[in-house]
Structures are given as C-alpha cells and as structure tokens.
C-alpha cells in the first residue's frame, strides 16, 4: 500500500485453498449481478495484489483500476476529477450531485455490458471525492449492474464516507497457504522445522513471512544455523508497519504500549480496559474504562476490553518500544493487578537476569488447579520460569511443562521447539523421559507414526528406569503412571500404523512375556501390585488381550475403563473410555464418552484434544450407523485438526467424511485423496484402509461392483496387502456383495469364515446380521431365503444400528426375490429398502432400490420416494449434501464460506451447485433463493 505497506506479497495465487476461491466467487457475483465490496485487511495482507488480480481476471466488460495518490488528498475533488478523466470525461466535474455524475459516467463509458471499478487506497482520496464514491457505491449496492472494489486499511476505522458498505476482509493466510508461499519464495530450500517456526511467527501475514525469510541467511533457512531470537524483532516489524506509528503523541504511544504489554499475559486478543485505565501513566487516559479507545484510531473498545484493530500493529508497538519503556509498562500493570499469575507474569518481564524465586512462584501459579488458567497462559508462565531459572535441570523441567501446555493449546510446532530447548542441556532421566513422551504425542498427531512409536518406547524406558531408581532411594513411592502412558502411546502409534506385532510388544514393554492365549487368570496379571489397577493399566491389559484375540480376558479391564469414564471429568480418561467401549462393541457408551470428552476439552481450552475427541465421536457414530451425525462431527473435527496443525488427526476425519459420503452418494475422491496423501506420508494404515473402503463403497453404491471388488480384494484377503488388522474385517460385507454382484462369488468364500470369527467376538453389534447377509449371498437358492430372513431378524434385534445396513439387506433380498420371479415379495422388500435408504439420506442407494422397483413393474412410492424416481418436485430431489449447500447459498453464503463450513474445497461446492441448478432448473443464485423461500413457505424441509 502507498508509502506504508509492502505491495503484492499476498498474490492471489498463494491463497490456493482460501482466498483464490473466495475471489472467484466474488468475481462471479460482480460479473453477473454487480455489487460493491470494501476490501480490507492488515498492513501487508495484499490488498493491492487482490485488486490487481481482480482487474486482470474480470473479462465480462471494461475495467478501470485507479490508485489514490496521497499527494492529491488535500485538493478538493481531485480523486473524482482523476476518475472522470479515466472514464473519458476530462475537465472539472459538472455541477450537481457528484455521486450521480460518477455513476452516469461509469454507465456511459461501459454501455450495457458489465463493468468493474477498482480504487486502491480509497481512504486517501479527498473527502469530497470519497463522498461521491460512497454515494455511487450506495446506488450500485441497491440497483446492481456495476461492480465496485474499494481497498481501505483494516487497522483503523473506515472513513465516514465509505462506512456501511459491505466489507470483504482479506483473512490471514492459513498455515498451509503460508507454507506454500514460503516454499516458493525460497525455492523449496527451507528446512521443515524452520518453515514451521517462520509460519508461526508470521501468524498469517504474508508480508511478515517474506520479510522473515529475507532476513535469514541460506544456512539459517536450511536449518544449519540457529535462528535469531526473536525471529520477528523490532527492526523487521518496524520496517513493515512502522510508518503507521510515526508521529504519534507520547501519551498516545504509551497507551498503545500499555495495551500491547497487557495482551502478553492473556490468551485472547485485547486487554481489560479497566486495567489499562489503572496502569496508563498519563492523566489524560484516566477518564473512563473505555475512554482510551477514543484517543487512538488503532484501538477498538468492546465488552470492557481494548484490542488492536491489527494484531500485527500491536506486535510492532511492543517490539519497537525501548526495553526500559516496556519494563515500565509491565511494572505499572503488575502494580495495578491483584496477586496472581497475571501479576507474576508482568513482574517477570521487569527483571533482566535469573530470578529463581520468581520462577518458582510462576511455576506454582501455573500449576494451581484452583485457578486453572488457560493452556496458552500456562505455557507463557512455564516458558518465563525456564528463562528465569539458574539451574539447568529446573530450566528443562519448565520448558517441558511449557511444551505440554503448547501441545494442549494446539501449537504442535511450538511444542517441538520448547522440547528442543529442554533437550539442549543435561537433564535428569525422568525429565528426559517426560520430554520424549511429549515428543511422541506431537508426532502421533502430526508426524510419522513409526517415529512417534520410537519416542514413546524411549520415554517408557527412561521413565521406568527413573521409577526403579526412585523406589530404591529415599522419599515417597514412585509414580509408574507416566511409564505406562508411554507404553500405551507406543501401542497407539503401532495401532495407527497397522503393526499388530509392534503394538503387542509395546504393551508388554518392560513387563516380560505377553500372557499366553491359554493362560488362566485375567489380562491384568502383569499390572503392578496395587489393590485396584489404574485406568492406564486396565487399558493396557485389555488392549493386549484384544490383540491376542482373548476377548474373554479383555472384557474385565476394558469394562472397568468404560465404567470409570462415566464419572470422569478428565478429557484423556474419557477418550480412553471411548476407545475401550469401541473395542467392546458398546457404541452407545463410546458415543457418550466421546461427547463428554469433547465437552471437557472445550471447557479446559484444550484445542489439541478437541480434534481427537471429535475423532472418537465420529468413529462411534459410524459404528452406530449414524453416518450423518458422523459427518457433522468429522467436519467439525477436521476444522479443529487444521487449527491445531494435526495432519494425522485430519486424515482420520477425512476418512470418516469419505465413508459418510459413500453412503449419501456424494463424491468421495477429495476426502479419499486427502486421507491417503497423509496416510502414505506418515504411515497411517488405519486411515488408509478406511479411505480405500470408502472409495470401494462409493463404487458399489454407484453400481460398479467390479471396481469395488478390485479395490477391496487386496484389503480383505490374506496377504501382505491386507488392510489394517482392526479395520479390514469391517469392509468384508462390502467385498462379499461386490464379488457376488460382479459374478465372482468364489473369491469371497474364504474371507466370510474370517469374518465369522470377528462377528463371534461381539465387538461389532452389526456384524452378526452382516454375516448372515454374506452367507445368504453365497448360499444355494434353497438356503438363501432363510438366511436373508434371519439377517433381517438380527437387524431388528440390534438396537441403535441405524437404517443403512438393514436397508442394504432388504435391497439384496429384494433383488434376489425379483430374479426368482417372486415379484410381490420383492416389491415389499424393495419398498422397505427404499424407505430405509431415504430415512438415512443414502440417495445413491435409494436410486438403486428405485431402479429395482421399476424393473419389478412398480414405480417408487410418492412422497419421499419421488426423490429417487425423479418425479418429485423441488428440493426433495437433491442429495443431502446438495441440500446443505443449497440452504447455505440461499442464506447468502459465498462458495468459499460454504466450503469452509462443510470442510470441503470450493471446487466441490461448485460441482454440487451446478448439479443443484440443473436439478432444480434455476440459472442464478437469485432464482435459487426464491425457490428455497417458496418451498419453505409451502412446508418443504431443506
């Protein structure tokens, strides 16, 4: 931007998954309907690049792209004169309303074709020209026909003449987009750890990201030399946005510094206005609690808090202030606060050397369960305690504690940097074990799971050794729980990798041989000699028994884990309870524990655990046959995983979304590809198997049994390509159906017997009915009918299993009956299948049932069935995903906003929206809105 902002760093092409699609949707609206948008954003966010791209990409008609000149801002109507000259009207503006003159000139120059006017830095125009521009924009907003894009800064209030116009804020870059920008700017030479740190430091600002990359040497970018501390120092921030702060009065600067300093002790943007009022050093700031905001255009007051309009500007205020002024601000804030962690933090920023007593007080306050500060604040406290500690061991303990809080807050890269700081000096064995335990947790959520397993195993050995030495020495009894947690972490990593042997070894790590399959007793025979085994020991022993196929030994310890979870408040305990319930096949208990874990994570502010809790909840929903609920939870979980930089967790959510889409008939390719990309890179066999199953089930639903059988055969048949040991059997019913429909039933007979062993263990409530269905498909005609009927009876006895699996059995039975000319019975069975598929939103499967009914000589029924036969009216003919998209579009959401809300790409939204338009016979969003409103008035349910 003019004089203040680095132009063009956020070129439109760097926003591949967000702003590029947003601008495409905006340009579509401007091209077809016209309209006005104020393009706003932080300094360096790329407003100029955005307008330049919009001007280049608008091909529906003429485009005028102007940039305001601050040198002309003092001359009345200079901006209007320049614009009229560009439109072919030289000379002074004519008399009369300036807005009407401008609008008339635009329409005269453009003729009947669509046209676009882009004005960069419109706030720098003189007031009279801004008023004319605002009047014209207000008219265009009502009448349409023209497109106006006006770029104004977002770090200060919008000028009055343009206030009230609809805004198009340029969002910060996502971590993924920022990494892409950095890779391109450095020719893909940046080290992954350095990339993560620079992306985190830039906090979504493309200009700051490029400035940081330019600051570092090639050796630093490649990770061969240490990075400067801090990476984003005052010099970098001043070069980027310092011009906005030049020339401010001293008391104004002190106010901004007080707000910036107060923000450092919190976990949310802004500061308590009353605190700033008490700490502000100048009398002019002591009027009212919210009064200081009126003294600065850079601040906004709301709900008793003051915050910077631009977080980047707030960082620059603090970083560029002299150290003594920063310490004075913190000293004033500490004096204005009651005793507690915030006051201690501000005190800590007033000292310049080691302060062991203050470090101890910070650590104790951060760990105080009575106050329970958010994890981001605890991280800051432990980090500061480490910096103030004189002892290496204590410093490592504090860095490790800070890393744990960073991980809980959803900052995995930050957690790894803190762990590296803890490991950079000699530390006690127990501290090193704790460090490796946390490193394993980071990698399990966002890295190669084999590496995570090795970190967990190293942690287990170190922690167990520390326990043994503690037991031999003086003091209280040692705590074995961290060592058991590390063993379970190693087992979780091996489970995710599909390595059952390594999983079993991890669960017997340090405990001798695994229990023999024929041994008497319980699976917790290796638990410590305590009166009552702990939850972690029970989970370990139950999981070990499951891997040994000793479900009789697994039931006791796993049942105790589930029971304890009913009264637990701890998120980790609740997720263990959900996992144990899934191993027991108790999906209702799993869903309950997952929901409570989610609530606990949100209450505590544990962003990292929120995505994992949603993963357990989504899997439990799938196992319960509630695929639409699973989809909702997985969409939410995917957003949470992306926020927390948990690629592995995101891959599992993509797999769930693909499975749900394979039932509803929506495209699965995007979610399958996303899941497999991360799964192959990080060794996630479980996510890969689920994604491949989803692709095959989509083939089967679309009437492509041969392709489905080809996909599933290697996953379910014995051999090196068999899928995940705990997942492949779930895909067996699909494979049997596909093989039979493809004309190769002989390929499926062997795996049915393996599936029978799975069904007998009781871990899957739907498996007995699915087994009977598989046997019916492979049975001779004399036995098949009875087996189908028994399968349907089994579905009836399975409570809470949903409609989908039963409808599939009814469909296959109806098809079998029709091919034997038992048309009346077939019609009844196929009609029931159709209704079942419609109830659960499985439209592609409902179309199969409808086609079978028509082949049987009967049209699908009225009402809901019309959506399958194609004779229904309006919205009832849309698939569930199309209905969701139509509703959001009718509510005014852009394609980008719809994509973000549904965790899909804008390309997928475009695809569905085209199908919606074709199905409903509408040609624009306006027609879609009218149709939706009309059908809702007549009682249609969207």
The shape is flat
- Could you give the distance between the termini? 45 Å
Tally of contiguous helical segments: 45
- What structural class do helix, strand and pairing data support? mainly alpha
Mean pLDDT, as a whole number?
85
What's the total count of β strands? 8
Strand order of the largest sheet: 2-3-4-1-5
Helix content: 55-70%
Low-pLDDT parts are 1-11, 283-294, 512-532, 862-873
Computed over alpha carbons, the radius of gyration is 32 Å
Describe the main β-sheet briefly.
5 strands, parallel
Strand content: under 5%
Summarize the structure in words:
With 942 residues, the protein is mainly alpha-helical. Helices cover 62% and strands 4% of the residues. It is built from 45 helices and eight strands. The protein has a five-stranded parallel sheet with strand order 2-3-4-1-5, sandwiched between helices. The longest helix is centred in the middle third of the chain and has 24 residues, at 449-472. The radius of gyration is 32 Å and the shape is flat.
């Amino acid at each position: 931007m003019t004089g203040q902002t680095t132009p063009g760093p956020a070129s439109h092409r760097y926003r591949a998954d967000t702003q590029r699609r947003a601008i495409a949707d905006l340009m579509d609206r401007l091209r077809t309907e016209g309209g006005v948008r104020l393009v706003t954003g932080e300094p360096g966010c790329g407003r100029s690049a955005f307008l330049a791209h919009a001007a280049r990409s608008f091909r529906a008609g003429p485009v005028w792209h102007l940039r305001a000149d601050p040198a002309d801002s003092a001359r009345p109507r200079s901006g209007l004169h320049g614009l009229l000259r560009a439109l072919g009207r030289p000379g002074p503006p004519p008399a009369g309303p300036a807005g009407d003159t401008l609008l008339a000139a635009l329409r005269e120059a453009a003729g009947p074709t669509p046209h676009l006017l882009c004005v960069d830095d419109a706030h720098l125009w003189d007031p009279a020209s801004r008023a004319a521009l605002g009047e014209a924009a207000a008219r265009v907003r009502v009448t349409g026909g023209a497109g106006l894009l006006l770029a104004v800064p977002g770090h200060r209030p919008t000028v009055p003449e343009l206030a009230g116009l609809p805004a198009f804020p340029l969002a910060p870059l996502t971590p993924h987009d920022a990494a892409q920008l950095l890779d391109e700017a450095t020719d893909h030479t940046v080290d992954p750890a350095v990339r993560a740190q620079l992306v985190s430091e830039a906090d979504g600002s493309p200009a700051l990201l490029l400035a940081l990359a330019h600051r570092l040497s090639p050796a630093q970018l490649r990770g061969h030399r240490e990075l400067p501390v801090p990476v984003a120092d005052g010099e970098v921030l001043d070069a980027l946005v310092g011009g906005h702060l030049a020339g401010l009065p001293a008391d104004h600067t002190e106010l901004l510094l007080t707000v910036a300093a107060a923000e450092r002790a919190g976990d949310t943007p802004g500061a308590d206005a009353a605190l700033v009022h008490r700490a502000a050093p100048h009398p002019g700031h002591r009027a009212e609690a919210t009064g200081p905001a009126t003294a600065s255009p850079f601040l906004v007051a709301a709900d008793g808090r003051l915050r910077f309009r631009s977080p980047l500007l707030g960082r620059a205020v603090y970083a560029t202030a002299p150290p003594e002024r920063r310490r004075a601000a913190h000293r004033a804030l500490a004096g204005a606060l009651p005793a507690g962690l915030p006051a201690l933090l501000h005190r800590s920023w007033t000292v310049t050397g080691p302060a062991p007593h203050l470090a101890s007080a910070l650590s104790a306050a951060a760990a105080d369960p009575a106050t329970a500060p958010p994890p981001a604040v605890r991280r800051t406290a432990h980090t500061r305690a480490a910096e103030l500690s004189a002892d290496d061991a204590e410093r490592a303990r504090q860095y490790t504690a800070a890393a744990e809080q960073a991980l809980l807050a959803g900052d995995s890269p930050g957690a790894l940097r803190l762990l590296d700081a803890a490991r950079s000096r000699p530390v006690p064995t127990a501290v090193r074990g704790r460090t490796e335990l946390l490193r394993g947790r980071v990698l399990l959520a966002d890295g190669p799971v084999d590496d995570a397993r090795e970190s967990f195993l190293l942690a287990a050995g170190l922690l167990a050794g520390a326990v043994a030495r503690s037991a031999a020495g003086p003091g209280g009894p040692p705590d074995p729980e961290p060592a058991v947690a590390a063993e379970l972490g190693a087992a979780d990593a091996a489970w995710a990798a599909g390595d059952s042997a390594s999983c079993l070894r991890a669960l017997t790590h340090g405990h001798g041989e695994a229990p023999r399959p024929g041994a008497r007793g319980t699976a917790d025979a290796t638990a410590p000699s305590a009166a009552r085994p702990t939850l972690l020991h029970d989970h370990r022993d139950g999981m070990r028994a499951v891997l040994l196929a000793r479900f009789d030994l697994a039931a006791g310890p796993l049942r105790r884990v589930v029971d304890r979870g009913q009264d637990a408040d701890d998120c980790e305990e609740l997720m263990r309870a959900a996992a144990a319930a899934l191993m027991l096949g108790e999906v209702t208990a799993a869903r309950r524990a997952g929901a409570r874990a989610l609530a606990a994570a949100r209450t505590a502010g544990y962003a990292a655990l929120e995505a994992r809790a949603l993963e357990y909840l989504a899997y439990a929903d799938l196992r319960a046959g509630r695929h639409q609920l699973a989809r909702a939870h997985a969409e939410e979980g995917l957003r949470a995983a992306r926020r927390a930089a948990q690629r592995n967790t995101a891959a599992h959510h993509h797999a769930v979304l693909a499975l749900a889409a394979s039932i509803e008939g929506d495209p699965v390719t995007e979610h399958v590809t996303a899941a497999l990309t991360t799964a192959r890179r990080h060794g996630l066999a479980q996510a890969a198997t689920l994604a491949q199953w989803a692709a095959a089930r989509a083939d089967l639903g679309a009437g492509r049994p041969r392709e489905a059988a080809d996909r599933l055969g290697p996953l379910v048949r014995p051999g090196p390509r068999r899928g995940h040991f705990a997942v492949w059997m779930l895909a067996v019913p699909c494979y049997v159906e596909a093989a039979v429909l493809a004309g190769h039933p002989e390929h499926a007979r062997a795996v049915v017997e393996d599936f029978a062993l799975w069904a007998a263990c009781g871990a899957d409530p739907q498996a007995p009915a699915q087994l009977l269905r598989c046997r019916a498909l492979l049975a001779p005609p004399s036995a098949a009918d009875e087996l189908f009927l028994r399968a349907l009876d089994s579905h009836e006895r399975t409570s809470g299993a949903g409609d989908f699996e039963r409808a599939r059995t009814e469909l296959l039975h109806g098809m079998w009956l029709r091919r034997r000319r038992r048309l009346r019975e077939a019609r009844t069975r196929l009609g029931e299948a159709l209704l079942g598929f419609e109830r659960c939103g499985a439209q592609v499967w409902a179309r199969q049932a409808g086609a079978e009914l028509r082949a049987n000589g009967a049209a699908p029924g009225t009402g809901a069935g019309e959506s399958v036969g194609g004779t229904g009216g309006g919205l009832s003919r849309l698939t569930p995903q199309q209905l969701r998209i139509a509703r959001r579009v009718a509510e005014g959401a852009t394609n980008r906003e719809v994509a973000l809300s549904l965790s899909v790409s804008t390309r997928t939204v475009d695809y569905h929206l085209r199908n919606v338009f074709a199905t409903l016979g509408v040609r624009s969003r306006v027609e879609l809105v009218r149709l939706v409103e009309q059908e809702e008035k007549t009682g249609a349910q969207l």
